[in-house]
Amino acid sequence: MLKLKEMAKKQKGNLILLGVYAFFSGASILGQAYLFATIIDGVFLKGVPFSDITTLLAGLLFVLFARTLFNYLIGKTGIKMASRVKRGLRQFLLRTYSNTTLQSSIHGQSGQKVSVLLDAVDKVDSYFSKYIPKIFQATIIPVLIFIVIFFEHVPTGVIILITAPFIPIYMVVIGFKTKDKSEEQLHKMAAFSGKFLDTLQGLTTLKLFGHSQKQKEEIRKSSLEFRDATMDVLKIAFQNSLILEFVSMLSIGLIALEVAIRMIIFQDLSFYTGFLMLILAPEFYNKLKELGSAFHTGKGSIGAANVIEEELENTFAPVTWGEEHLDEKTPPTIVLSKAGFRYGDAGFSLTNINLVIHPYENVAIVGKTGSGKTTLLHVLAGLFPLTAGKILINGNPRDMYKEEEWFGGVSYISQSPYLFSGTIAENIAVGSRHSTTMEEIEHAGEKAGIAEVVRSLADGYDTKIGEVGRGLSGGEKQRIAIARAFLKRPSVILFDEPTTGLDLYTERILQESLDELSRNATVITVAHRLHTIQRADKIMVMEDGKIITAGTHQELLNHALYKRMVSVQQGGA
Amino acid sequence: MRYTKGWFLFSREVLNVKDLGTIVKIMFREKRDIYLSVLCGFIAGITAVGLFASSGYLISKSAFAPPIYTLMILVASVKLLGIISAVSRYGERYFSHRGTFTMLSNLRSSFYEKIEPLVPRVFHQYRSGDLLARIVGDIETLQNFFLLVFYPPIVTALIFVCTIFIAMFFSMEAALIIFIGFILTTIIVPALFLLRQRKFQLKVRNSRSRFSIEITEFLYGYRDLKIYQQVEGKEHQLNLSSDAYLKEQEREEIHHLFGESVNTFLSLSISFIVLGTGAYLVSEGQLDGIFLAMLVMISLTVFENVTTIAALPGHLEDNKQAAARLNKVVSYEEVQESDVGKAKLIIQSAPSLEVENLTFTFPDQSRKALSNISLRLPAGSKTAIVGPSGSGKSTLMQLIMYLYPIADGEIRINDQPYRQLNKESIWKHTNIVLQENHFFFGTIRDNLLLDAKTADDDILQVLEKVKLGHFSLDDSVLEKGENLSGGEKQRLAIARIFLKKAPLWLLDEPTSSLDAITEAEIYQHLFSLAEKDTLVLISHRLQGLEEMDQIVVMDRGRIVEMGNYHELMEMRGYFYGMKQIEKSVFTWGVT
Questions:
Q1: A193 vs B72, more confident
Q2: Which structural domains are found in chain A, ordered by start?
Q3: Out of A202, A256, A466, whose CB is closest to B58?
Q4: Can you give the pTM of this predicted structure?
């Protein structure tokens, strides 16, 4: 579990402030009680003229102000603490994601990550902004009140000493039992609203199959069942607070009775002290009850902290780099020797990959969906680390070279390139590490075949695209990605089925650009077009994370699996 | 002057609650729980005031050493008030929560009832899953309308009115001060803070959405960022917008806290003024000193109720926004709904279909998705629609499925125009497989959406036919079929229609995730089941179309070619070109 408590302890300064503020807040509560008692005693019994109590009244106003002020400061400190923790958590998560995003995105968790960074971190807030300040108030203030009561009137102190422990004991004994039950119910609640959402999302299907009316009755029925189950749990919770209420009331009643008997029968207690006890006792028990309810405030945060913790546990080793220089403009020789890669513990893996790619070679990777083609491409690109074996660049381990110089020579063009929110020009300029001129961008656009589309737009290269701007078709997105590559002029190009899902004409145009881009580079393609494969200098056939065979098209035609695959494509069955 | 303007804005904003009309109506179906919780809340509050008042009086009285029985009566009444207060508090909580959960049930049913007729058109407008999730969230917000918005002010007002009335018997001045304090702390101060609060909230929302967009870009665009060496810069930028978001959040929270503190101080000051005025009156001999402690206790206790009111404007705002969003969703296209036909489609055997001059534009787009489509599907015919992605084939299919209203042109089934027909009656006779089929949380059996009782053996046989023999009927299916592969989902969707046995088949790429061999086997079963029926199929592959009576080739929203396989191949046109490219595609069977 992510230790929220540990995180709080790190903020010593704020904790001390909280303690100090809580002390002063308690002191003002005491001051308020003293002044109330003194003033009423003075006016009511001692017959002091009004002019004599004006100073006291001014003091009272000051104390009331102080009480509010310190409460405000406690709240503010809590908010500041929460902000600091949230900032730290986000930075930490971002750093972790920076290292592991690609590897875990295999599991399709990007959506979940967004919600962890936003919502889960926000939920941690209440632990620091509400729970901790409350704990400080609910422990320091009752202790202060108790000490004062003990000094002023011992019997009241004794009554408190006997009755007060019942409240925490009761909370511990009964509270824990219902806690589990109510947590279970909270869980059900989430599942329940999930089911309603599920029904809404499937409404089209339900209608097409004539089931939508039936579902309405179902929603009503299950909602009511849910209500009854929840009420059973809530009833217990309400009963508990009722009993707590009785305990504290009984205790206050005892105090009142004792005070009254002393005043009337023994007549050894002044009105002043009696009244003071009567003001302070409820304050004491209220704060004590708040301690119990405070535990609920922190609960949501603990759940969220667990989610974050899980996320941080999912760490994968990052790819490591060195300090040696690499000429990014010349294609290198790439060698994989007994290379392996594995996601997590039981996940998918690449095993025993051996291959040599010479400069300017054209390599095709083929295989079924899920056979590890994209993973191999990621390993070659330097996006995934090896978990076994070696990768050699020009005969040296790749981790000797500088990261920016390796990536300076690599382009990766996938089925779904990502466009950032910004203008088309900005999106193309991403391709270069250096500042680019408009001419260079336009030139790259021309080469990638996007220029015509851009010209048809009112704002040209300044048209906003991405999340917030105009949407582009799949083919147009691809062309922007290719324009990035033209700007970069890479020496190693990795293609991950870049033309899948595009229509005939778009594909034909794209292919021309891709061919030109490939002329001065090593090209490694996850391929699905027969002509791409036929042209390849080397074809690697993958299955279950292994390269089962490799060779040229002609050589591979003797391989049974390859042959069957090719014949299926050429119009058979 | 500034305050007058603020006050005006506030009342216009707050009193403009027409969006909440529906929720109020739904809420009042639970009259009994409403009355009981208001009653219990009032009793709990007023007895608490009584409790502290009488203990204040008790202590003052004790100072004069009264006869013991007076004391006993007082002590007993203090006890009694305490017990009543605690028990009523319990009742208040119980009834208000029960009412709230019943309201949730009513709200869901009522919203479902409203949105049901608008499906699936409304989903085109609000396609994203996020929106539906927000609808569910909005309904949950509204569930608390009663608990957080409606009844606290009623109870508080009742308690105050009653307290002020009682206080009048002892001191008109104290009653007046409490009244002024009531107006100040429950209406004026919260209103002033609400106006500023909104500005802060807006800033929080904006910075949050900026941050959210940047996170999304970072995570989804990570590979491109990494290759192009932009990760560090982006990470830095993300940290900056995280800080900006935090700062706005912090400001909003502190402002909220400040508002609360001001109100608390104000409440305390009211009790202070009660004390000061009371003390003056006592020293002037205009008030019996024995009531002074009591009045102060009354004032302190009654203003404790104000804290629930302070949070109210925020909740009201949330509820209003939730209600407005929901209203917007369900009021969508109410006008067009009126021209929907009432006639019921009655057919016994395979129907014929006719599409005439059909043109279609999606509501939020200017480009035509379909233009001038005309096509005849004789009874019992088998038709395939092919074309590149974005050519309009799915749109045409969805119109034949009558998922969207037909605005321009005509579709007829057995010579009856769709427009005159009740949609449900068309769907009743149709076997539909969509590109994306929804699966629900439940079992395989639940997800087959069986109408009549079907013997388990028959169902299992169908599952066997679609190569899902490895499932048992009680195997669980997770939300959206998350535990099924793409191929399994498609086969389950096909099993659904195999069990439905309707004479019209409309299939939109039903086997795109299946490997060629499984696909061929399933098609064989499908075509033998549909032998006498009318069938339209959108096919992602061009293989196996030789047997179709008719192939419709589409591109950019138009039909470019039509005919059977051999006719089209001989034409050497668009279809022929597609066929050539397909031959060059090197795909392994997808599993």
A1: B72
A2: 4-313 (1.20.1560.10), 331-409+491-504+517-573 (3.40.50.300), 418-489 (3.40.50.300)
A3: A256
A4: 0.77
